[in-house]
Design a protein that fits this description.
The protein is an alpha/beta fold and about 525 residues long. It is about 50% helix and about 5% strand. The protein has 24 helices and 8 strands. Helix 11 links the parallel strand 6 and strand 7. Helix 3 runs antiparallel to helix 5 and helix 8 packs parallel to helix 9.
C-alpha cells in the first residue's frame, strides 16, 4: 500500500546522509520533498500542512542542531510525527464489565464489513473469547448468506433469523434490521457468548436513510465499540466519508480494509488525524487470518523502511510449533545429523507463518529489494515439499546415496526437472554443514575467535593461519640486540596516531571502501565520499 510513499521518503533521507550539519536550506528542501511525497500519496491537504509544519519546526530546533547525526535525527522526527497522525498509541477493544461486549460495524457498501466481521470473530476467538455474529444487513442481496459462510469458515455461530434480500429485485421483504440486531444481542446473552459482532448495511454513498438506520441500531443495542470500516483505496473521499459517519453514528475506532492493495494509501494516513479517532485494526489480505491489530509506531516504521521486526516475532511465536522447536534444540544438543526430514519440517514451519513476501517486507531495508521480493514464487516451498516427499525414508536420512537414476526418479515423482532436485540437494548440503558447525562450536559458523560465536574448528584454523613469530637470530650478539629492541618497544607503548588521523589512520578523508569489507558494508558505515 505505502510502497510509493516509502520510496519517496527513503530517497529524500538519503540526501541527508553523511552531513555533519544541516542548514535551514537543507531543512526546507527536505520538508518540501516530504510535502510532495505525502500529496502524491493522496494524504489530505490539511494533514500534510500540519505534519510538515511540525517537522520543520522541530528540524530547525535544538534537538537537531545538537545531534551527532542530524540526518538520523530528521528521520526520527518524521517517524514520531507519522506515529502521531496514525493515532499515537495502539488501541485495543474495550470489553464490557458485565454481559456481552457488543461491537457494531459501520461503513459504505464494498468496504469489506461482512468479511471483516468474520476476521474479527476469528481473531477474538483465538484470544479465548466466544464471539457470535449477527446478520442485520438485510438490504444487500445475499449479505446474510455471505455472513453465514464467513462465520462457518471462522468457526463461530451466526444469528440470522431473516434471510434478507436474495436478489437485486428484492423478492423477499427486507425485514427490520433494528429488530434483528436487538434480538441478536439478547440471543448472545442467553447463550453466554461474551462478544457480539453486528454487521450492518451500507450504501454506495452516504445517504440519509442509511445513516438513520445506523443510528437506530446504535440506540437499540448500545454498543461498546462502533468500528468504522473504510476501504484504504478510495483516496481523498475517505476523509469526507469518515466525517459523515462520525457525525452520524459517532464511531469509536477505525478499521482499514484492503491494506494489501496497490493504491497510494493516503486515506489511511488522513482519517485518524482528521476525525481524532484511533485506527484499531487493519485487514491485509483476503484470508481470514490476514487481519492484525494496528500499531501506529510499527506502521510508521514500515513506511520509513525501518522494518517491523516486532510483528514478525509475534507471528513466529503464534505459528511456530514449540514441540518441533524443542525437538530441533535437542538434536543440536546431541549433535545429531540434520536430515531432509528436518529440512522439510523447517520449511513447513515457515509456511505456517504466512506469506514469505509479507514477512520479508517487514525486514529493515526491504524496499531496496522489493523488486526481487515481488518476483519471489510463494509456491517454491510446495515444490521443496514435493521433492522431499518423493524420496524414500532412507534417502532423506542419507542423501549421499541419491545418484543420477534416483534423482531422475525423484524428479518424475515430484513433477519437476532434475536440475531442481540437484539445486535442492546442494542447498541442503550447505544447510547441513552450517548446522554441524553451529552444533560443534556452540554458535554461528564462520566467525572464528569470538566467544560463543565460533564455528567448529574456527579458532584452530585462525591459529593455524596466523603469521608465525619471527625466529630469533643464531648470532648471540644480534639475538641480545633484538631482545633489547623488543623490550624498548613494549615499554614505549602503542604508537600514537598522527594529528588529524581518524579510523584506520586514514585521516578525515577516509573512505570505507579502502578497507576490504563485505559488499555493501561501506553504506552501513555511512557511505563513501
Amino acid at each position: 500500500m505505502f510502497n510509493s510513499l516509502s520510496d519517496r521518503l527513503t530517497a529524500t533521507f538519503k540526501n541527508l546522509r553523511g552531513k555533519g550539519r544541516l542548514t535551514e536550506a537543507d531543512v526546507d528542501g527536505t520538508v518540501r520533498e516530504i510535502r510532495r511525497a505525502l500529496l502524491d500519496a493522496d494524504v489530505a491537504v490539511p494533514v500534510v500542512r500540519e505534519f510538515t509544519g511540525r517537522v520543520r519546526e522541530r528540524a530547525l530546533g535544538a534537538e537537531v542542531n545538537a545531534a551527532l547525526n542530524p540526518g538520523q535525527q530528521i528521520v526520527k522526527i518524521v517517524n514520531e510525527e507519522l506515529v502521531e497522525i496514525l493515532g499515537g498509541e495502539t488501541r485495543r477493544i474495550r470489553l464490557a464489565k458485565t454481559g456481552p461486549t457488543v461491537i457494531m460495524l459501520a461503513g459504505l457498501q464494498g468496504a469489506g464489513k461482512t468479511t471483516l466481521a468474520g476476521k474479527l470473530a476469528k481473531y477474538l476467538k483465538a484470544q479465548g473469547h466466544s464471539p457470535m455474529l449477527v446478520a442485520s444487513d438485510l438490504q444487500r442481496p445475499n449479505a446474510v448468506n455471505q455472513l453465514q459462510i464467513v462465520g462457518q469458515r471462522a468457526g463461530v455461530p451466526v444469528f440470522a433469523p431473516h434471510p434478507g434480500a436474495t436478489s437485486t429485485e428484492l423478492d423477499h421483504p427486507a425485514g427490520d434490521p433494528v429488530a434483528v440486531a436487538r434480538a441478536g444481542v439478547e440471543e448472545a446473552r442467553r447463550t453466554l457468548h461474551d462478544v457480539v459482532i453486528v454487521d450492518t448495511a451500507g450504501r454506495t454513498g452516504v445517504d440519509a436513510d442509511m445513516m438513520e438506520q445506523a443510528r437506530q441500531i446504535r440506540r437499540a443495542i448500545v454498543p461498546n465499540e462502533v468500528l468504522f470500516v473504510i476501504d484504504s483505496m478510495i483516496g481523498q473521499d475517505a476523509v469526507n466519508t469518515a466525517l459523515a459517519f462520525d457525525e452520524g453514528v459517532n464511531f469509536t475506532g477505525i478499521v482499514l480494509s484492503k491494506l494489501d492493495g496497490d493504491a497510494r494509501g493516503g486515506a489511511a494516513l488522513s482519517v485518524a488525524s482528521v476525525t481524532g479517532k484511533p485506527v484499531m485494526f487493519a485487514s491485509t489480505g483476503e484470508g481470514l487470518d490476514d487481519f492484525e491489530l494496528f500499531h501506529p509506531d510499527r506502521m510508521a516504521s514500515r513506511i520509513l523502511d525501518l522494518g517491523d521486526v516486532l510483528t514478525l516475532i509475534e507471528q513466529a511465536e503464534q505459528n511456530w510449533d514449540k514441540d518441533e522447536a524443542a525437538r530441533m534444540a535437542k538434536k543440536f544438543a546431541d549433535q545429531e545429523d540434520f536430515t531432509l526430514d528436518d529440512f522439510l519440517s523447517q520449511m513447513q514451519q515457515i509456511r505456517n507463518m504466512g506469506s514469505m513476501k509479507k514477512m520479508l517486507m517487514m525486514m529493515p531495508g526491504a524496499q531496496n529489494i522489493r523488486q526481487q521480493l515481488e518476483q519471489f514464487d510463494e509456491r517454491e516451498i510446495d515444490r521443496v515439499e514435493a521433492i522431499v516427499r518423493s524420496m524414500t525414508p532412507h534417502e532423506r536420512v542419507a542423501p549421499k546415496i541419491i545418484n543420477g537414476s534416483r534423482r531422475a526418479r525423484i524428479a518424475r515423482g515430484s513433477g519437476v526437472h532434475v536440475s531442481e532436485v540437484n539445486g535442492l540437494l546442494e542447498r541442503f548440503a550447505q544447510a547441513q554443514k552450517m548446522m554441524k558447525k553451529m552444533a560443534a562450536g556452540g554458535g554461528m559458523p564462520g566467525m572464528p575467535g569470538m566467544p560463543g560465536m565460533g564455528g567448529g574448528g574456527g579458532a584452530r584454523k585462525s591459529a593455524k593461519n596466523a603469521p608465525k613469530k619471527k625466529a630469533r637470530s643464531g648470532n648471540p650478539a644480534k639475538a641480545a640486540q633484538e631482545l633489547k629492541d623488543a623490550e624498548a618497544r613494549r615499554a614505549a607503548g602503542p604508537k600514537p596516531l598522527p594529528t588529524g588521523a581518524s579510523f584506520g589512520g586514514q585521516g578525515e578523508d577516509f573512505d570505507p571502501s579502502q578497507l576490504n569489507l563485505p559488499k555493501g558494508f561501506d553504506k552501513f558505515l555511512g557511505g563513501s565520499k
